[in-house]
């Protein structure tokens, strides 16, 4: 592989105009496809194989026109202290707000709380439900403005008016990516000391993300992709795009420092660092594509789209980077290196990576024990992990959604915000109405039930819908127990009446999602870690190095989950990170962290340890190989980790609890993995293992393909008599190098 990539790197360098033109054309074509594609508004969230999803499917079939996917709003009113909503002045204000809502172009209808009987018994709090003709992502700004203006008119009349519902679910605002790119530029400039060298990784990462995201937008109508599919692709594509280019540019500069001609340096950089990029990219693709085992269509599509963007990032690093290096000339070098001129001796003083590696080699046991115990202590809270999906109760206390949620809990009880929808299929029942009555009586007899609404039959009379309001709040374990209790009565009710009882609704769906994700976590871990273990065994031709990499990753992920639990579930340091409300951890968080962090962690492992393996293969002692790996790799791995942490940490400032949690979790996970596992535990383990670290059974060595990531075969080929590392095309650039 190293030999093939070496030739590709030199070809891209020589034919730089062709390669640059190809990637620019691809970007233009993808952009044109995105611009001309019809808008995809598919944001359906389906969970195949769950009872909640079966109930939704039955509801859609038996209750035509009852489109739960369209946007809805719940406008909550509260009368001033000592007054009631039924007072003439307050009632007139409420009716005015409802009248304004009905005149909005995208509103299908709005129910008056007085005629719909949605005022609490005390008469102080009520709500109006508004149904829209379109999904939340298709709402116009005029529709949202009209809703806000109507609510403000109610406030001007002296009422407390707040709004909840899916109508407020807007696309996340941009800006975090810009902050991440700005931080990346600063870090790269410090790392390379050259504007050109710092700009290359940013330019190629943006091109790769542009092609990937535009392709997703262009294919969205054809593949039925949601508007959120590109979110993960953009985040991961930007991260790995910078990382991969960073390592190749860094290796190119190192080759130039050893006196190589520019074309030769480009070829060797792609042949060595490029080989590491290929396998690092494969581990990320495995982790993202493996999300399909969860069997949640939205996650599968997001994972595959992100995997495609990572593949583009790898191809760009291997072909566009050497082409751009050809355009960059000597400007890719730091200014002081250019001024020193050819033949100048570099600073022989050991760099920070070398000094740190030597320190670890002197005290490997101490470093290993301290690292493992430290991460183990941080991981302890993970044992108390509680999963759930956040609702408006987890929103910022200053948001209107949260205020509406609190008003409803105060006026109608904590369970009002999480009603359970019980669908009763009586198509096979001998007495449909009697069967539904029996179901209703059974529900009323269960504990933790506040109210059960009268049954609502569909026109055919073969399906009924009942609403159960729990006494407990939606995210509590008591509500989850109630869902299981209702489902537990299903078999006996079917035996007695012939009716099939299914529980759904947002609360039940959240419970099912949490359970499905929890059940899928171990198989997903086994898949991605198992496949990556085999892949790393091919890369490093070792059994213990991949095993150490996998165990270190698991340690960093569990520690990161522990930190997330401590901050967002227990409330430790909550004020520091702007956590206003503690509660269950988002159900997708563990599996999301496993996929994303695993890919990035293996990036750092491959880039750092490949350089150690290369030094060992070329004759250095195990300990010295570790030092060499840190000498050349620590600086760029540190830069890559800081860039990723900065990008993810930018999301901590979000007002959305879910986004804040993702940003914190990924940032702390990268910190643990890059700086504690890869920078401390890994060299300590390799120092203790010595030559055993690179042990591979003879029979396995014969079975595994030799992909020559460290470039041993390439070095032998270039060392053969008559092998020239300089082509006629390189002569034209000789003067620039000597300048």
TrEMBL record:
PROSITE patterns: SSD (PS50156). InterPro entries: MMPL_dom (IPR004869), Mycobact_MmpL (IPR050545), SSD (IPR000731). Residues 716-739 are annotated as: Disordered. The chain crosses the membrane at residues 178-198, 205-223, 229-249, 270-294, 306-329, 365-383, 521-540, 552-573, 585-611, 632-652, 664-689. Keywords: Cell membrane, Membrane, Transmembrane, Transmembrane helix. Residues 178-327 form the SSD domain. Coiled coil: none annotated. It is found in: Cell membrane. It is a multi-pass membrane protein. It comes from the Bacteria. Residues 729-739 have a biased composition (Acidic residues). Belongs to the resistance-nodulation-cell division (RND) (TC 2.A.6) family. MmpL subfamily. This is MMPL family transporter. It comes from Streptomyces roseoverticillatus.
């Amino acid at each position: 592989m190293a030999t093939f990539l070496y030739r590709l790197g030199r070809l891209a360098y020589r034919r730089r105009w062709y390669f640059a033109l190809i990637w620019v054309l691809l970007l233009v074509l993808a952009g044109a496809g995105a611009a001309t594609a019809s808008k995809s508004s598919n944001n359906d969230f389906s969970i195949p194989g769950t009872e909640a999803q079966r109930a939704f499917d039955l509801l859609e079939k038996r209750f035509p026109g009852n489109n739960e996917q369209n946007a809805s709003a719940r406008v909550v009113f509260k009368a001033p202290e000592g007054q009631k909503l039924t007072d003439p002045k307050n009632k007139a204000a409420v009716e005015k707000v409802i009248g304004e809502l009905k005149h909005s172009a995208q509103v299908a209808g709005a129910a008056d709380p007085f005629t719909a009987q949605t005022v609490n018994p005390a008469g102080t709090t009520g709500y109006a439900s508004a149904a829209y003709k379109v999904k939340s992502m298709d709402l116009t700004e005029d529709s949202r403005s009209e809703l806000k203006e109507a609510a403000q008119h109610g406030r001007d009349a002296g009422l407390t008016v707040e709004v909840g519902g899916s109508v407020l679910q807007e696309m996340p605002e941009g800006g975090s990516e810009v902050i991440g790119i700005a931080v990346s530029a600063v870090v790269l400039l410090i790392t390379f000391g050259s504007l050109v060298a710092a700009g290359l990784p940013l330019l190629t990462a943006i091109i790769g993300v542009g092609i990937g995201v535009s392709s997703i937008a262009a294919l969205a109508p054809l593949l039925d992709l949601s508007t959120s599919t590109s979110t993960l692709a953009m985040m991961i594509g930007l991260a790995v795009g910078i990382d991969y280019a960073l390592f190749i540019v860094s290796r190119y500069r190192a080759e130039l420092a050893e006196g190589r001609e520019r074309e030769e340096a480009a070829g060797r950089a792609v042949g060595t660092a490029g080989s590491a990029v290929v396998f690092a990219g494969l581990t990320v693709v495995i982790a993202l594509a493996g999300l399909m085992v969860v069997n949640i269509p939205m996650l599968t599509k997001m994972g595959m789209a992100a995997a495609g963007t990572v593949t583009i990032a790898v191809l760009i690093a291997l072909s566009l980077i050497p082409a751009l290096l050809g355009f960059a000339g000597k400007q890719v070098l730091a200014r002081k290196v250019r001024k020193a001129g050819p033949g100048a001796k570099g600073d022989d003083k050991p760099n920070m990576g070398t000094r740190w590696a030597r320190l670890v080699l002197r005290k490997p046991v101490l470093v290993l024990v301290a690292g493992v115990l430290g991460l183990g202590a941080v991981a302890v809270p993970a044992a108390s992990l509680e999963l759930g999906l956040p609702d408006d109760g987890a929103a910022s206390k200053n948001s209107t959604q949260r205020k509406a949620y609190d008003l409803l809990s105060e006026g109608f009880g904590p369970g009002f915000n999480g009603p359970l929808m019980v669908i009763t299929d009586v198509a096979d029942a001998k007495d449909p109405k009697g069967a539904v009555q029996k179901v209703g009586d059974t529900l009323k007899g269960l504990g933790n039930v506040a109210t059960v609404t009268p049954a609502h039959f569909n026109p055919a009379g073969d399906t009924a819908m009942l609403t159960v309001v729990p006494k407990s709040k939606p995210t509590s374990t008591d509500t989850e127990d109630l869902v299981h209790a209702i489902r537990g009565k299903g078999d006996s009710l079917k035996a007695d009446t012939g009716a099939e009882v299914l529980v759904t609704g947002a609360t039940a769906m959240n419970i099912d999602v949490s359970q499905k994700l929890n059940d899928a976590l171990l198989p997903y871990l086994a898949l991605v870690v198992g496949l990556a273990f085999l892949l790393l065994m091919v890369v490093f031709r070792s059994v213990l190095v991949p095993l150490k990499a996998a165990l270190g990753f698991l340690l960093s992920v569990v520690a990161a989950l522990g930190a997330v639990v401590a901050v967002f579930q227990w409330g430790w340091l909550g004020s520091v990170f702007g956590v206003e409300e503690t509660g269950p951890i988002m159900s997708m968080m563990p599996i999301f962290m496993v996929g994303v962090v695993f890919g990035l962690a293996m990036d750092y492992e491959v880039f750092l340890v490949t350089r150690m393996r290369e030094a060992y293969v070329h004759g250095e002692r195990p300990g010295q190989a570790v030092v060499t790996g840190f000498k050349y790799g620590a600086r760029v791995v540190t830069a890559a980790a800081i860039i990723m942490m900065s990008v993810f940490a930018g999301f901590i400032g979000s007002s959305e609890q879910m986004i804040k949690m993702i940003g914190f979790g990924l940032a702390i996970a990268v910190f643990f993995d890059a700086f504690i596992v890869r920078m401390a535990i890994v060299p300590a383990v390799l120092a203790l293992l010595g030559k055993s670290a690179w042990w591979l059974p003879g029979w396995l060595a014969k079975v595994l393909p030799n992909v020559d990531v460290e470039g041993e075969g390439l070095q032998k080929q270039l060392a053969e008599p008559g092998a020239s590392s300089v082509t006629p095309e390189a002569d034209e650039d000789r003067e620039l190098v000597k300048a």
